[in-house]
Amino acid sequence: MKLNLGDNIRTYRRAMDMTQEQLAEQLGVSFQSVSRWENGTTYPDMELLPALARIFSVTVDALLGVSDEERRIQFEAVCETLKKELYAEKKNEESITAVLRELRRDYMEFFFNDTYYFTDLRQSGAYRLPAVMQEVRLIFDEIIRKCDSNFVKSFFIEQMAEMEDEEHIVPFLRQNATAADLSGNELLRRRYLFRGEYDKLDKLRQAHLYELLDELCGNGTVWYIRDKNDYSAEYCRYVNDACLGVLHSVCGLTPDPKNPVTGNGSLDVFADIRLNLGAKRAAAYAGTGDIEEALVTLEDWISLFEKVMAAADGTGVRCTSPAMDAFAPEVTSFWIPIAWKNCEERFALLQESGEHTYLSLCEPGHFYGDQYGLFDPSGYLCYFAPDFKGAFLNPRWFDSIRENPRFQAVLDRLHNLIETRELTGT
Predict the structure, then answer these.
(1) What distance, in Å, lies between the first and last C-alpha atoms of the chain?
(2) How far is CA 341 from CA 116, 247, 263, 344, in A?
(3) Among residues 341, 414, 330, which one has the least CA distance to residue 373?
(4) Alpha-carbon distance 206 to 369, whole Å?
(5) Alpha carbon distance 15, 184 (integer Å)
(6) 10 Å Cβ neighbour count for 296?
(7) HEC states along 68-86?
(8) Which end of the chain, N or C, is surrounded by fewer C-beta atoms within 10 Å?
(9) pLDDT tens-digit readout, 326-339
(10) What pTM, to 2 d.p., does this model score?
């Protein structure tokens, strides 16, 4: 690659209205040296490049004339090297540390948007190597110091909290965990109480109650209590009955026999939780031989799904309980681009190719309470595939009802809910 270093030094110097003598003084060299650099006669010593970059407030790569696109390609190549090292059968502590050091030294500006390498560090277990973890701490410190996004910072704090060793975890939490009295929700609670805005205060409390119920009954908590290989249909049936019982109690419902998932057949604020529990309840009941209850569950479940997908933007969804009558998030649809090459297993049943986007709905927005959560219909379609793996649901439990016309009718209705759009560059 041809270096345009001299031209770049001249351009940056003039942009700062700086003379050769002034630049030379800051660097501790003669102005003749600066002149020779700019004329292309010689190059500055390598150790002077960081100092030049700092003076001009640019990166060393920018000073050398490396484009953003070239840097992105270089960054991705280093990340690919890191991934190979992380998932090697025998991990080389020195090699992994060296690659991490290179990323920290040369590519920190990419760290804030490309977080997958941190996930790989956690999933591969490489963080257990002392030298690797020390380098990870240095990267984390740089991110916390330079990143302006609280959302990105929170992501890295969560990842680090899982990886830190016993010696460092307590000081890490003291430094990075948000104290309860400084959290966003707590500051809003104090604000509403001080101003006498009790309607907003009640809404905030009810949104918090929703989050607690989601923690108790949602897809990412109870279903991960035990190892997937230890799951039995009987245990899953027990968990489903308990979770749905909690939701019915909060809503003040005595479930109708025909509506074991929804309680009364209506759409409420817990629909996303009910959809997860309903699919797994049907599998668990089929797996324990209760065929009629499994089919009734599926029919109530698909009816709920149809109501959710038919809800227009701006539709408010409520809980029938007075304990949550102020929490009424609105349905808001949006499109998320999903590359097929990364999702072959999940979307195998659709038997298509290319890139599409899938209809989803927003998650509830913490203390905002203004948007409503839902999962992608095509993801649920894969739940019923004979070879599906994941989500703590054993597809073999459905074997007893796969040929049943009522089961097939539910799958047909689910197919009709799936909507795709071609992925565009916008």
Answers:
(1) 33
(2) 16, 38, 39, 6
(3) 330
(4) 9
(5) 43
(6) 19
(7) HHHHHHHHHHHHHHHHHHH
(8) C
(9) 888 877 766 655 55
(10) 0.62
Kindly tell me the sign of the dihedral angle through the C-alpha atoms of 70, 76, 79, 84.
negative
Strand partners, 359: 335
For residue 49 the two structure tokens come to 């490049």
Residue 256's identity, in one-letter code, is D
Please give the Cα distance from 261 to 247 (Å, whole number): 10
Token reading at 208:
């918090």
Please give the backbone phi and psi of residue 287, each rounded to the nearest 5 degrees, phi first: -70, -25
Q: How far apart are CA 287 and CA 397, in angstroms?
A: 4
Number of CB atoms found within 10 A of residue 138's CB: 13
pLDDT tens track for 228-266? 556 788 988 988 899 999 999 999 989 999 999 999 999
Residue with tokens 């989601």: 214
Q: Could you tell me the two tokens for 83? A: 């991934």
Do 380 and 305 meet the contact criterion of CB atoms below 8 Å apart?
Answer: yes
For residue 353, what are its two tokens? Answer: 């190719």
Per-residue buried b or exposed e for 370-381, using 16+ beta carbons within 10 Å of the residue's own CB: eebbbbbbbbbb
Instruction: Compute the distance between CA of residue 179 and CA of residue 185 in angstroms, rounded to an integer.
Output: 11
Topology of domain 5-64 in CATH is: 434 Repressor (Amino-terminal Domain) (1.10.260)
CA distances from 67 to 3, 136, 205, 207 (A): 12, 27, 50, 47
Provide the residue ranges of all domains of the chain, joining segments of one domain with +: 5-64, 68-179, 197-426
Largest CA distance in the chain: 91
* Cβ atoms 366, 207 nearer than 8 A: yes
